[in-house]
Amino acid sequence: xxxxxxxxxxxxxxxxxxxxxxxxxxxxxxxxxxxxxxxxxxxxxxxxxxxxxxxxxxxxxxxxxxxxxxxxxxxxxxxxxxxxxxxxxxxxxxxxxxxxxxxxxxxxxxxxxxxxxxxxxxxxxxxxxxxxxxxxxxxxxxxxxxxxxxxxxxxxxxxxxxxxxxxxxxxxxxxxxxxxxxxxxxxxxxxxxxxxxxxxxxxxxxxxxxxxxxxxxxxxxxxxxxxxxxxxxxxxxxxxxxxx
Length: 244
Prior knowledge:
244 residues
């Protein structure tokens, strides 16, 4: 199948030789979103309105800070904090509600607001729709493109989270034998490669035993980093963008 614009990022991810091509794909999206956040866009009123409302999750606020655009970061933080202060001042001035007739406490609006803040992130929100399309594209290519199917079948598997997401996405896009084959292939890829990395971690542990001191490291030296990818979707590369 001739490569199309929307298939390029997916093919690039599966060409990356990463322990989880989906993590690789998402990391590229995150880097682009972080760079966009601290690029000229932070001066645009509509973008600032969104960052003021949403803020950032713990992971992405660190990535935005690491862009080293200190003035941009300060401006974004200042107006976001202004928004939070105004919301809290308004909500904390509301009358406190006690228990209902059924003995349950009615949630305070300030409590709902603070909880909602931790469920929002400008970067997460910006990449979500594109990431969903990429996941759909994986299933599309697997079904339609023989060369991609071979590429998929020979990859190094997936992290636990994205393994589950692939199965879930496929269940809504495929049926019958196509779905059965995809699920069986994805199960195999996940388990074989999780065991491979697990065995490398086990050998890493063995190397601290004097009985194995003279044995080669094999593939164990970077096994802990690869184990983080497999279990927690943590790639060693952190998004970096230096703009002053």
